[in-house]
Model the fold of this input.
Amino acid sequence: MYYIVRLLLMLAVGYVLYKMVWKGEPLFRIKPKQDKRHPQKPLEEMKKDPICGTYIPENQAIKYRDGSETHYFCSDECKNKFRQLQEK
Done:
């Protein structure tokens, strides 16, 4: 009986060493705690300005509807340039 317990203990130690050394994986994974007082805000969708190529958050972008399409701009200057290009 003593040899069986000793064998099982050696197998368990061998398995732990195998996981840690050869596989490079942690034995136990610790999940980071989320702060419940300050939950993370979901990321906003970024829109690309068709004139200058700048990415802006959708809620801060200047919107321009052209028929059924909505275009997003970083400034009034880019919006006006786009409108001038559309008129030509």
Q: What stands out?
A: The mean pLDDT is 83. Strands lie at 46-48, 55-57, 62-66, 69-73.
